[in-house]
Every structure is written in structure tokens, then in C-alpha cells.
Amino acid sequence: MIILSRQKISIKTILFGSFIIILSILFAIILLFNNIYQENQMEIQRELILKNAVMHAYTLAEIKYDAVLNRDLDEEMAKEHVKEALLGEKLEDGTRTMDSNYSLGENGYFIIYSSEGEEIAHPRLEGQNVYNVTDSLDDSVYIVQEQIELAKNKGEGYYYYNWEYPNNPEKIGKKICYVKYFQPWDWVIVATTYEKDLKVYFEESKKSFLYTAILIVLIIIPLVSYIYKKITNPLFKLNRKMQHFSNNMEVPNIDCSTKIKEISEIESSFNNLSEELLAYIEELQGLNEEIENLNSENSAIIDKMNLLLDETSDILDFDNEKDFLKEVFDNLYSLIPEAYSGVLSVLEDGRVKYISSKNLDIEKLNALNLKTDEYITYNNVFTSKNTKTVKQDALSEEKNNSLNSLLSKKNESLYIPINGNNKQVGNLIFHTTGNDVFSKESFRIAVYYSKLISLFLKFEDMNEFQNNVQRQIIISLIKMMEYHDTYTKGHSQNVANLAEDFSRFLGYDKEFLNRIYWAGMVHDVGKIIIPQDILNKPGKLTYEEYELIKNHPVYSFEVLNEIDNLKDISYIVKHHHERIDGKGYPDNLKDKEIPIESKILCLVDTWDAMTRNRSYRKALSIDSAKKELIKNKNKQFDSKLVDYFLEYIKSNEPL
Ligand SMILES: [Fe+2]
After folding, report:
1. How far is the CA of 509 from the centre of ligand 1 (A)?
2. pLDDT tens digits, residue range 28-77?
3. How far is the CA of 577 from the centre of ligand 1 (A)?
4. Distance from residue 600's CA to the centre of ligand 1 (Å)
5. Which uninterrupted H or E stretch holds 428?
6. Cβ neighbours of residue 211 under 8 Å, at least 6 residues apart?
């Protein structure tokens, strides 16, 4: 299979090839036209040569004839003069020397006939009559006859015929004649020659034209290559230079030097333009880099800002001081890029406790088992290369060695105190390694975080205070209620404790236990609204009185629901008198509609009421109370809860 090359041809090749082709075509056309022209010219010249020769001969005859008329010459003499002029002197053998005044080519000569066919003058046959010839010259008779007739009838004219060459009879050539009749002497003057004999001159002329043309071509080719070198070469180089620049954005080392003004100007303009362009591109790249750097700096700052904001808003989500401090420590480590190692420590129970660390062995640190008074604390955020947080003088040599080996890689330290409740409770400390130092930005972040820690700790203190206040208010409320309803004295505390303990037995979490404890504490708080004489009535209650008492869970709910922290509890309390069979109050909820906390509360509330002495009745025995619970399975109480509760009671019974 032939694979055709798809290589691109350069314009240089096309131009040069086209030039050669056009030159060759032009050259061929010129030669062709020259040939045609020469042929035409030859024809005309050939005929003119013969005609002129005959005309000269005719004029000579006229001159000689005039001389005869003037008696200056004898007629025979006059004729002989003309014959000698045309064919040379006559030799003894009757032939002529052919030493003619006229050139009619190699085989050309004059002949003079009489109108009767006599050879008046002839190179060889002078004196003979053509019409008497009966041998091989037969054809010549007709030719002579025709020539004589042409001369006599038309006066003069051309005559053509074919005849063998005298020195080569096998070769036939075209002969051309001009004939003219000179009437005074009855002469038919004929000039004859072979066409080819006269061509030689023109062939020479054609050759000289060919040589001239070749010479011109030979001059044109170096001229063109000179022009090519001087004009196109630098143009192509310039083009290559421009293409290289456009592809690679750099000016190549291509020399386009030329003496041609315009090309030099283009090159110089291109050089200036490319330099300006490169400078502009460089400037743009610089700007671009700056923008990219700014962008990455900005996004880093935004990330840090987001983390700081998250941290600030997360304060409320941490209820554990150590978790919060660990989170702060991790975040600071990621926000301070110079930090290589670090540790978070708190002062607790007279000891230094290391909570979290980066690139420091926390187990070895805690193994130091430092006491609070062996520890040095500072109030502010600062950076230093020789910060000490431990009174090394007070430590044993072993502990000092261990501490020094732990901190062997540190260069600069960043110290952040943890200040809570007017005293320092710990610190965060970060170290750089090698020659690294902390940046101003990292220092600012550290300061921000130290304030955040303080805020958290104060907030936590405040929260604790608030919780204590709330607790005290609730306890006061319960005491007021117990004064109000003497039957329930100590009952709320009992229910709270039992509900919490039973829930722990069931496996609920700390939050659930806390919730059910407080629900137990406040479950009957609504009774404070029920008139005291109804609550403390020793006898049987009327229907109306009972209906009034049945409102106490709703009253409890309405009071507690007003306090944000007690909203969850308020719903538990509201339904602590609902029954599985839906016959409870206030909303007649059934089984799964009742909150699990309310179900537990209902059970332990009843249990406590049954098993404790009241002023108006004695407590039931444990067994009777158990039977009561079993009897009310799936009626008042959740069946499974009763089973669990019985298990719970059993596990708490003395062996
Ligand atoms: Fe109650």
C-alpha cells in the first residue's frame, strides 16, 4: 500500500517551483513564436532574394541594352557582360565558372532561356535547346515550358518544383525560382535555388536567438535567486520568527537582517511589539500570582474566621469544661501553622493533669505526676524562647531529664492561660521547632482564644449559678406545697428518688434520670392551687371536690410550662395520672400515647402512696402493694413496667 505523504509544502518551494515552470513555459512559447516568425520571415526573405537577384539581372540587361542602343557596346558583348555577371566567364568546354556577382545559396544559379526554349545562359547546358532534349531530362522540358509561359504571359513570377540535388541524385529537394521576361532580347531570366540552401542562413539566425534566450535565462536565474535571497529569505525568516513567538511566547534567535528598508522596519516593529507584549504578559502574570496569593490568603482567613465563629457559637453546646478545652486545643493547633507540638493541662485536685497533646508523649507528661505548687502559671498570652511552666529546681533529676527530653525539639513557645473564676485553672502551650517562630496573626488568634476560654468558663459559672437558683426555687415551691397539703409531705422527694432509681435499673441515660428526678419532684406542684380544706379533708370527697383535685396535673403543667428549662418536665407531669386503658386524666390518653416517663411516674407515685403511712390510713404491706400493681396491669399500669418494677423491688429487698 502506498502511503501518501501529507507533509505540508512550504510557500518557498511553491514559489520557486512555480517560477521555474512559468519560466519554462514562457521560454517554450517564445521559441515557438520565434520559430513561426522565422519561418515566415524566411519564406519572404527567400523569395525576395531570388526576386531581387532577378530584378538586378533585369536592370543590368536594360543598362546593357541601352548601351547597345547608344552604340557604346556591341549587342553580343552586351549580352556576354550580363551572362558573365550572372554565371561567370564561359570556359572552353562550354560551362561557366559560376563566379557570380549574386549569392543564391550553395546550389543556386541563374538561367536564361529564349522563348523558344534555347539555353541562352546555363552553368553546363548553354547553347542547347531544352525542347530538343529527349532523354532523362524530359521533365525539365515541361518545367522550362511552364517557366517561359509564366514569364511571357505574366511578365514575372515565382515558380516552384521538386528536383534532385546535383551532387546527390537520390535526394529530392524543393526548388524555388523567380522568372522575368526581358522582352528586347527575348530573354526569360530565371534565378533558381533549393529552398534548404537559403534556410541555412535563417537556421543560424534561429540558433543565435536560442543562444540569446539561454543566456537571458542564465542571467534571470541568478537574478531571481539574488532577489529571493534578499527579499523572500528575510521575509520567510521573519514569518518563522513571528510564528515561534505566537506559539511559544518568546522571541527566537533568528537573524532576519536585510538591506531592504521595509522588511527591516517590519522586523524592528515586531521586535518592539513583542518586547512590549512580553513585558505586559509578565506584568499580568505577576498580577495574577498576587491575586492568587491574595485569594488563598483570603480563603485561609475566611476558613479561620468560620472556625472562630463556630467555636464562639459552640460554647453553648459544651456542658463539659474538658471537652470544650480539648476542642479549643485541637482547633488552635490547626489554626497556628507554626505550632509543631503542644499540650493542654489543667490544675485539678492539687495535681497537674495533661489532657491532650500534639507531638508530645502525654503518658510521659502525666507520669511526671506534678503537683500544683511545682507548676508555674502566667496570667497573659505571650511568646518566649525560654518559658518554663514547671519549677525544675523542685523536681528530681529523673523528672527533669524526662521533661527536658520531652521538650528537646522546641524553639519558641506560645503560652495561653486558662483563667476561670478569678484563678488560673490550667494552660495551653504550643511549641515551634527548628528556627520557626509564631507569627503576629497566630498570636492574635491565641489572644482571641484565651478570651473565648474565659468567656466559656464565666458562662459555665453563670449557668451553674442559674441552675442552683432554679433548683432552690423549685425546692421552695415543693416545700410550700407540702405545707399546703400535709398528706403529701416527703412524698415528692420519695417519688423523685424512686423514679430516678427505678429508671437507672431500667438502663436509662443520665439525661433521662435527671429529667425524671425533677418531674418526680414537681409532679404534684399544681395542688398548691387546690383549696387546702379539700386537699386535707379527712373524709370522703364529693364528686365536685374530686373533679377539682383531678385538675392538679393541668395546674402543674401550666406553671412549669412557663419556665424554659422545665418544658420537657411539664409534659411528663401533665400525664402522670393517665391510665393504659384510657380512663385516666386529664386527656384520657391510652397506652402508647402516654410518655414513658409519665408511665414510670404513675407507677412509683402509686407505689409510694400505697407503701407509706398516711395520717388517715396505714401503709399497705409490700405484698399487698405488689398484688395491687399486678391487679392493675394493662388497666392503670403498663404491664411490662409492672414486671420490671417487681424485679426492681425484689432486687432491693433485704435477703
Ligand atoms: Fe398526683
Report:
1. 25
2. 888 788 778 877 777 777 778 888 889 999 999 999 999 999 988 899 99
3. 7
4. 13
5. strand 423-433
6. none
